[in-house]
Write a structure and sequence with these properties.
The structure is a homodimer. The first copy, chain A, is α/β, with parallel strands linked by helices. The first copy, chain A, contains 19 helices and 10 strands. Chains A, B: It catalyses: 5-amino-1-(5-phospho-beta-D-ribosyl)imidazole + S-adenosyl-L-methionine = 4-amino-2-methyl-5-(phosphooxymethyl)pyrimidine + CO + 5'-deoxyadenosine + formate + L-methionine + 3 H(+).
């Protein structure tokens, strides 16, 4: 029995109850949304993981990407990154390793953290070959099966990169064509082998595997725009349409899913992308990488992503994939993962402050901070802050004797107004 | 003759021509917008400064705040911060010093950079007293006159904090009351002295001074919300209304101005704030501090400000005041000023990508970056990047022999797709 089968029968399971408790909502609502496919709780039957709900009425979640590359293979480093992401508040982790003993790395990461783990099996199928295009469709499905058996909670498959979307690409005028790694493998494979994408043409087989392990499917956006110029174009929307059709089939197979989205999108097109995807994919939970709101800020793409992510969250995005300062430049370090996770948590919270169903809960936290600020109660401020440690460090590096902060000292607006209010009160 | 007098007569001056050249627009348009008050070029007659236009149809500008505090008085540090802000692309600098020899500090900063300089004269009037409330209204106006004579290009006056807005404050339910430093001085002064704000009640006198030196007036938002809870409330809108009336009087006096805005605003209320202010202030150029989209990220308020600033820019904000990582915590260091300036430049550019009239120019830059990315042309990428130095440093810290970056190495999507396209081309 998959969770979705239970949900469709109206059975409220312990997983639904756990998520309902942590979100402060009714388990019945969770059950009904899972049945409809608007909430997903990724949790492979082969693994115990923290139960998180992604989707409608729930708080915005954050994923951290980690993993080795061909050039930097250090398992301990990746395990440390996974622990850092968890410690700083990530809700899920994707292992995107492409270098070294991939099975061992995945196992080590899954053992190190309790968060749900996602992966991209085609990376392993491709990375095991001399050339990406040499893998067979069996290699691709076998990689999926291996990950499922190992307990991966959700897998990304780029099933939307098919002959149809590639036709749209060829008739378009993209600058960066395909920038999704899995999308590029799939595209190269299709060109080389003269066949359609097996994950698309044999999608039912993929669903069989996913159902067996109750593994969630993350419908990857292999055609996502890789620059501002390419945003919201016909290949993007063609893929949204295909993904929407696959969402329908996934739900019919009682498998949970979510849909991945762009990418690089200017701020005035984010609403279009988010609402377009939600609409074309029948309100499946939406998982965005960014979106990055400009191309020209390498070194700061955790910030361009947080800008886009906040607005996308407000428009209805459920799950934000962090970007790090190393995006477009290098394999992230542990510090990059820390920074990326924190900044994406900020975006998720800022989105929740504006999301129906989340506003009240989220605003109560900011209100507590506001009271602590007015009272110059620094310890409470640091305890509420997303990264109280860094806040404390900055304050203490340049202290003042005034009780305020060293920006204003005894000219602090809070101090002056608090005093004026007292004076007024006494005068009455 | 003030620039606005010229503009109203249809005289196209060298200042208008300079801005038109740097923005790639018609000088006639600049002239007509200055006449209407929708573009401001701050430039005191006593000082030569870089000519920048702020307002309609123009690129989004960035201001950097620097200045000593009571507890940290080091003139060389502040001069270095001013140089840093200019070097990293700020369009204007405000000297907010409150500690030390304020005249000397202001002079040193004005000598060190060519950017337009703004100040808040009430800081000097208040800081020279034993208690803020001891200053006289003469002290306040004398400070304005001194700054004008010294060549300050724009001054902030919190003329919107008056008996009316304070009534709205008292009938409301704010948590943080007044968080503007100048606003708090004014409020305390009014309570203590039982009089209305001189900058409001004698606003014509202020305009006389400003006109004499053709100094622009920045209508400060002393009532700006200091937390998410207080955003978009009645005291805020009361101040917008007052500021709108003052905009009208300022224009009638042939003095250029802009209007300052919040503050802390959740992302779903930013459009309301920006459009509300634009509407109530007859499309005066709008200058925002942030807005910060959450209260709970001290240490990262350059980022919460960049998130709000990008969206606010898209909604029509003309001028973004940077926040730094030290916001709410300490006097910023030189590194903080660098970081704050860069991140705010990112927000301004991301806003321009979405602004009518700016899109085409801004997108051309991102398109060049996208081409460089596809071609794995790293030197060009670094030359286009907002902070190419840091981008290069990150890439070079973890290099790969593949020509790509160390995230993907030879599994780089760009490399794989470029190769597949070649293969396809040859196959034809």
């Amino acid at each position: 029995m998959t969770l979705m089968e239970d949900a469709k029968k109206g059975v409220i399971t312990s997983e639904m109850e756990a998520v309902a408790r942590s979100e402060g909502v009714e388990a019945k609502m969770i059950c009904s949304c899972i049945a409809k496919g608007t909430i997903t709780i990724p949790n492979n039957t082969q693994r115990e993981c923290r139960l998180i709900g992604i989707g409608k009425y729930l708080s915005t979640k954050v994923n951290a990407n980690i993993g080795t590359s061909r050039d930097y293979i250090n398992i301990d480093d990746e395990v440390e990154k996974a622990r850092t992401a968890q410690a700083y508040g990530a809700d899920a982790i994707m292992d995107l390793s492409t270098g070294g003993d991939l099975d061992l790395i995945r196992k080590r990461i899954m053992d190190a953290v309790e968060l749900p783990i996602g992966s991209v099996p085609i990376y392993q199928a491709a990375a095991s070959q001399k050339a990406v295009v040499d893998m067979t469709s069996d290699d691709m499905f076998n990689a999926v099966r291996k990950h499922a058996r190992d307990g991966v909670d959700f897998v990304t498959v780029h099933a939307g990169v098919n002959l149809n979307s590639i036709q749209r690409l060829k008739k378009g005028d993209r600058i960066t064509n395909i920038v999704s790694r899995g999308g590029s493998f799939t595209y190269a494979w299709m060109i080389h082998n003269g066949e359609d994408n097996p994950f698309y043409s044999e999608y039912d087989y993929l669903l069989d595997i996913a159902r067996e392990y109750d593994m969630a499917v993350s419908l990857g956006d292999g055609m996502r725009p890789g620059c501002i110029h390419d945003a919201s174009d016909r290949p993007s929307f063609m893929e949204f349409i295909t993904l929407g059709e696959l969402v329908k089939r996934t739900r019919e197979a009682d498998v949970q899913c979510f849909v991945e989205g762009p990418g690089h999108v200017p701020i005035d097109e984010i609403e279009l992308s988010v609402k377009g995807m939600k609409n074309l994919c029948d309100n499946a939970p939406l998982y965005l990488l960014g979106p990055l709101v400009t191309d020209i800020a390498p070194g700061y793409d955790h910030i361009t992503g947080a800008i886009g992510g906040t607005f996308a969250g407000m428009c209805g995005t459920d799950f934000l994939c962090m970007t790090t300062p190393a995006e477009h430049l290098a394999l992230p370090t542990n510090d990059d993962i820390r920074e990326g996770t924190i900044v994406t948590k900020i975006a998720a919270h800022a989105a929740d402050l504006a999301k129906e169903g989340q506003k009240e809960r989220a605003r109560a936290i900011d209100d507590r901070m506001a009271h602590a600020r007015r009272n110059l109660d620094w310890d409470t401020q640091f305890s509420i802050a997303i990264d109280g440690e860094r806040a404390r460090q900055i304050r203490e590096s340049r202290i003042t004797g005034s009780g305020a902060c060293s920006m204003c000292g005894d000219l602090c607006a809070m101090k002056i107004v608090n005093k004026a209010l007292e004076e007024e009160e006494e005068g009455k």
